[in-house]
Amino acid sequence: MVKHIILWQLKDEFTNEEKVRIKEEIKEGLEGLQGKVPGLLSIKVNMNGLDSSNADLMLDSAFVDESSLKGYAVHPEHVKVADEKVRPYTKSRVCLDYEEI
Q1: Which is nearest to 41 in space by CA: 59, 61, 26, 66?
Q2: DSSP label of 2
Q3: Using alpha carbons only, how large is the chain's radius of gyration in Å?
Q4: Please, what are the averages of pLDDT over each run of 10 residues along the chain (101 residues)?
Q5: Measured CA distances, 44 to 9, 30, 41, 67, 68 (Å)
Q6: Is 34 within 8 Å of 40 (Cβ atoms)?
Q7: Could you give the CA distance from residue 60 to residue 42 in angstroms, rounded to a whole number?
Q8: Which helix or strand (DSSP H or E) is residue 58 part of?
Q9: What pTM was computed for the model?
Q10: Are the C-beta atoms of 23 and 79 separated by less than 8 Å?
């Protein structure tokens, strides 16, 4: 199994109310990919970090293998969510992909 973890920071220009809405839309969009992307085992977005956090959102997803993760990256449903709901609102992205043993 391959894990795909992403941490995002939202752009500073958004109000707290806008950030709540944006995070909800990102969560809905990404978690809506379950069952649509071959090899995607699980996908969860955590948007309720503690005040000590320096990220606004975390994606925690799991794939059958590295090939499935590569397919996810270019899958049209994922690309649409990324282009419409994630990239326009985020200023930074950190990724860690690893094979869970």
Answers
A1: 61
A2: E
A3: 13
A4: 98 96 98 98 96 96 98 98 98 97 83
A5: 17, 8, 11, 20, 17
A6: yes
A7: 8
A8: strand 57-63
A9: 0.94
A10: no
